[in-house]
Structures are given as C-alpha cells and as structure tokens.
Design goal:
Layout lengths: L16 E5 L1 H27 L2 H10 L3 H27 L6 E6 L4 E6 L3 E2 H26 L2 H12 L2 H9 L8 E4 L4 E6 L6
Antiparallel strand pairs: 1-6, 2-3, 4-5, 5-6
Length: about 200
C-alpha cells in the first residue's frame, strides 16, 4: 500500500444542459421548421394530381365532418403512441416508464419516457410520428389517388411541428449524451457524456 498514492475520487458529472424554450417560442420555431415539409407534400400532390386536387383532398377527408374530425383526433392520439412505442423499443425498457397526459399550455396530449434516453433513441422517437403518420400517408395518398389519406398526412405532418422544434434544440448533442424531457417547457435536459480518463 502506497500511502502517497492519491485516492481516485469519481468525477462529479456536470449539471444537465437545459435545451428548452417557452411553449410559445417552441410553437413558432416548429411552424417555421414544418412549413417547408408540408409545402413539399402539397407541391408533390399538386404535381401528381393537379393543383385543384389539394382542395379536393381536404374535402374528401371532411366529407363526413364527424368521421374526418374523429380520424384527425385518433391521429393525434396515435402520434403520442408512436413516440412511446419507439422509445420503449429503442431503450429496451418497459411501458411502466411511459407517462401519458395532457399539456394544458399546448392544449395537446403528450407522452414522456420517464428515464433518460440515449440521444439517438430520443431523436428517433421524436421524429417517428412525422414519418409514420405524416409523410408516409401523404405520399401514399398522393400516389394512390386517395385524397383523404393524403390530407390526413398533411395535417399530421403539421402536427409534428413541436417535435421538430425539440430536434432543432438537440442539434449538436453527442450520441453518448442522455436526454430527458424538460418537466415544464418544450425541450429537454441533456446530460453530457462523462469525459474519458
């Protein structure tokens, strides 16, 4: 035993980085980010089906107002379920770690994974609803001539604006970092990876 040998004390991890915005600013940022995506989907539909088909697609979705509204409401709920499914699968955790609820400030449902997630898993879960419920139905509806399906995709793509804002806030976060939803704002708390010794 060397009495001069310094005892190694584990390094204290740095405090988490706050990557969040107030809900209003996040909504504005999300709109700016999602607008080009929705515009591209509308342009694709106009090129394939003709410009008048955009209005026809929206009319088709809401031809029976109750059914159209029910479809969109179901899509909003499914949006949160898709987040949760991807996070559970990516993290290898259980459904007990998922919390669903209603965010009154945003007037929207939410899904939170209560444990920290690796940044790539968090990002994948955040972007999944845009792809699965927005972009894919919009393109399939356009290519198959099912206007109601395309319009559903446009609306659900627009509904992913907040997710895009959060992804923007996470730009530059390393893949080894751990990410947790912010408890009260739009965005996340990021625990940077420990520095190698």
């Amino acid at each position: 035993w060397n009495i001069n040998q310094e005892e190694k004390v584990p390094a204290t991890p740095p405090p988490p980085q706050d990557r969040s915005l107030a809900m209003g600013w996040a909504a504005l940022l999300g709109i700016l980010l999602v607008t080009p995506i929705v515009a591209a989907l509308l342009l694709l539909h106009a090129m394939v089906r003709g410009p008048a088909a955009i209005g026809g697609a929206i009319d088709a979705l809401f031809a029976r107002t109750g059914l159209g509204l029910a479809a969109v409401a179901a899509g909003i709920v499914l949006h949160e379920v898709v987040h949760a499914v991807v996070w559970v699968a990516a993290a290898g955790g259980g459904w007990s770690r998922v919390r669903f609820g209603w965010q009154w400030k945003a007037l929207a449902p939410f899904a939170h994974y209560t444990d920290p997630l690796p940044a790539p898993a968090y990002r994948l879960g955040a972007i999944a609803p845009l792809i699965v419920l927005g972009i894919v139905p919009a393109i399939v509806g356009t290519l198959t001539g099912r206007g109601a399906v395309a319009a559903f995709g446009w609306l659900l793509a627009a509904g992913a604006a907040g997710d895009l804002a959060v992804l923007w806030l996470l730009r530059g976060v390393p893949s080894r970092a751990l990410v947790t939803d912010h408890p009260s704002r739009a965005g996340c708390l990021v625990q940077a990876p420990a520095e190698p010794e």
